[in-house]
Amino acid sequence: MTKENKEITIDLIKKFQNGNKEPFNKIILFYQNYVCKVALKILRSKEDAEDLTQEVFIKLYNNLQNFKFKSDLKTYLYRITVNTAYNYCKKEKRRKIKADGLSEEASMINKMINIDEKLIEEEIIDDLQRAITKLSDKHKTIINLKDFSSMPYKEIGKKLKISENAAKIRHHYALKKLKKLFIS
Questions:
Q1: 51 and 100 assigned to the same domain
Q2: Which of 128, 126, 108 is nearest to 177 (CA)?
Q3: Among candidates 96, 125, 129, 122, which has minimal Cα distance to 41?
Q4: pLDDT tens-digit profile of 81-124?
Q5: pLDDT tens-place string over residues 15-53
Q6: Max Cα separation, the chain?
Q7: What pTM did the predictor assign?
Q8: Are 115 and 140 within one domain?
Q9: Residue 59 above 90 pLDDT?
Q10: Which residues of 134-170 are buried (b: 16+ CB within 10 A; e: fewer)?
């Protein structure tokens, strides 16, 4: 998403939060294909994905007033979509178990949910790894030492020949840059 599109989205949200509900239609038009694609990856049914997309936007409408801009709207919608889809799958699983009592079918649905969760997890990991490769060497190093090797800041400072406080600051800025790269 371009910086211009992010600014337009922020402007639409602020107008909505100030009582003008009309910009919400533009938000729907802008993000409905994205939400539907995410839902389709999980549900594997176009009709279910379209129904779920409507449900996601109803949830967004009811909660957008409290949106704090701590993350990008696209990220926020992704979480709503994934959570709503998983809840839908769980309901379907319970409904099917009650309807015909077939543990084999329940097992199959459970496997499908697990496969979808793994696929989404793998996608997120791939996106994260791509974002990490775009970081500067000093930021990659600090992320690897702290987040992947679980090294304490004191040891990181010694290893990089910087103070413990400088290691904390560098890690903070590396995470900030990584978040920006990951979201975009």
A1: yes
A2: 128
A3: 122
A4: 988 988 888 887 666 655 555 555 556 666 666 666 776 777 77
A5: 999 999 999 999 999 999 999 998 888 888 899 999 999
A6: 65
A7: 0.54
A8: no
A9: yes
A10: ebeeebebbbebbeeeebebeebbeeeebeeeebbeb
79 and 9 co-located in one domain: yes
Number of domains making up the chain? 2
Do 141 and 171 fall within a single domain?
Answer: yes
CATH code assigned at 182: 1.10.10
Do 62 and 149 share a structural domain? no
CB 43 within 8 A of CB 88: yes
- Non-local CB neighbours of 169 within 8 Å, separated by 6+ positions: none
Residue 152 is part of which domain span? 134-184
Contact present, 128 and 115 (Cβ < 8 Å): no
- Pair (121, 150) in one structural domain: no
Q: Which of 132, 127, 134, 142 is nearest to 173 (CA)?
A: 142
